[in-house]
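The record is kept unedited without comment:

——
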Amino acid sequence: MTLGEQMHSQSRSCAGLVVAGLLLVLAACASDADEGTAAPTTTAAPTTTAAPTTTAAPTTTTTVAVEPDLSGFTTVSEIVQGFVDEGGLNGATLIVVDRDLGVLHRGHFGEFGPGRISLVGNLSEVTSAGVLMRLHDDGLLDVDAPVADVIAWGSGNPEVTPAQLLSHSSGMLGGQESQFYGPYVCSMMYAGSLQACGETIFTTPDDDADLVPPDTELLWPGTGADFQVAGAVAEAASGKTWAELVDEIYVQPCGLEALAYNNPWMQLAFDPATFGYPTDFGGDPSTLAATENPSILGGAYATAEDYAVLLLMHLREGMCGDERVLSPESLDLMHEDRVARVYDGGQTDPDTGITWGYGMGWYTDRETGTGLITNLSIFGSGVGLNLDTGYGAVLLLESTWVDGQALFNDSFFLDSIQEAVLLARG
């Protein structure tokens, strides 16, 4: 299977990995959390007016913080450890977060330990979309206005907007035929610059016969070309490089350890059969050549701890501690099912019949209606949030989406996470 097939064949992979797994447990958690029963109350007897009494010395009330019961995560850890051992994987990290309680659980398995840096593949969509939404917050661009308003070469597709690029709705060629598509292939190459690549993609006449009108179909260009153009627009609007934007928007205010971007696709030794995780990366970004043309859709690397911090930022209305990263309004635009609102779009998994929506960087669940959003990676990793109940998780693997699918289809694993979260909340 080619890179594009693994990376962007979302009609199958989104239901197969986190979307069919993590969302299930998040939905169940939402259902159970809403069923709490208040303790019964009794009516006090009528009181009479007593004679005046001497006022006693004031008393001090001490509130003792109750530590959450995290014992339920023992079972979760045993399942993940068994999965790693049986599959011969090099390891995994699972972090579960809660809007109010913060990090509930952090488990490292196999070779993985705190601070391990991994390529995150498609999870890059979440952070990349957020960069443009921050520029939208700052008034440097309007995500619903044409790209041509920001940069002259935007006239190559004068109707296309950043929001359409970030929701895979720009009309660019997608699907099987877009794998290593010539007019867009610069998105996968570390040579050149992001500006030059964006202009090449947006102005080429070679794709004219393959374009469809924007906001009519949900299509993933197999090279990530739509996000590559969005990244170039962000640089043009801000006057900063993509690396500077990522550092200023996320790394500094959130205190992240490693989040950054490169363009690994032509540099590392990917398995041509599975396009699984490249073993020659080794958690060391210095193995990658410096580039001015990072892969905006799939080129990020980070620690699981980094993504846990960002998940909490999404749950806490765009705040990293006292620092605002994104406005609540921009988060709403990222989290919503944009393709349903704008043009009744979506992707239906042929195996399950389930249709998934998409916002900007996040898949949306239409089955439960409980504010469930996810993203997934070709390397088996996944992130998910339940916006209604304020709970989320990140799982990092260095494997293939097939391995991730196997774990997230394990109902005992999913039920165990649910039970652990509810137990921690009391």
